[in-house]
Structure formats: C-alpha cells, structure tokens
Write a structure and sequence with these properties.
Blueprint (H helix, E strand, L loop, with lengths): L2 H22 L5 H19 L3 E8 L5 E8 L2 E6 L17 H18 L5 E6 L1
Parallel strand pairs: 3-4
Antiparallel strand pairs: 1-2, 2-3
C-alpha cells in the first residue's frame, strides 16, 4: 500500500475513533457495574476455594454464554454469577430461569465441543 493511502486511512480511523469515543467511554449502568463487581468477587472466592479460573465471559457461537469457566480438581465447572444489591426481588439463584439455563447449556456445549473430550466430568454452579 502506498504511504499516502496508508496516511489517509490512519487519519480517517483516528477521526472516527475520536468521533465515537464519547460513546465507548460512557459509564456502565448500575446493574452492569454490579454484575462486573460480582464476577470479580466470585472469581476471587473460587480461587480461594482452590478452583482454577480458565476464562471469564465465554460466548459460544450458538448464542450460549458462561460467566466463568473454571476447574475444580478434575471437574470442569460452568459458573453463572448472580449479583444482587438486596433480596427484595428474590435470591440470585431464582433468577436463573429456563431461558437462562438454555443459554448456559448452549455455552457449555460449545466449550465441550472445543475440548473434543467426551469423558470429561463437568457441572453447573450458581455463585
């Protein structure tokens, strides 16, 4: 690529970056901040309990999602993290409804397909 074209692409991308940076730097809403803090605390708890954190926020191609993938000895653990400011709307585990269970299952299946190991032990936890 010639240098003039490279400079104009770089200039254009920096102008767009500056134009959209105000949207990317907006503060997260309260529930997103609470959720991120809850995931951080959950990972700290899991590590202290002897778990090895493998990945946070896994998204499978099929639309599945796992908050934390970790290992407890020889068992793979798919963890759903639920954070609440208070229990007025129920306990966190009660928020894992049928639809959420399906998304977690799709994410777990995507992860297991990547491993290509049908003999692995796994379980689902809510923290």
């Amino acid at each position: 690529m010639n240098s003039a074209l490279a400079r104009s692409i770089a200039d254009l991308s920096s102008r767009w970056r500056n134009h959209f940076s105000r949207w990317t730097s907006l503060p997260k809403s309260g529930h997103l901040r609470r959720g991120a803090r809850g995931e951080k605390l959950a990972c700290r708890y899991l590590k202290r309990s002897g778990y090895k954190i493998l990945l946070r926020n896994f998204r499978g191609r099929s639309g599945g999602e796992i908050d934390v993938v970790c290992r407890d000895n020889d068992t793979l653990v798919f963890v759903e993290v639920k954070t609440r400011a208070h229990e007025d709307f129920g306990r966190p585990v009660e928020a894992v409804d049928r639809e959420k269970q399906k998304r977690i299952s799709r994410g777990a299946l995507a992860w297991l397909r990547m491993l290509d190991n049908p003999d692995i032990f796994f379980r689902f936890d809510v923290v």
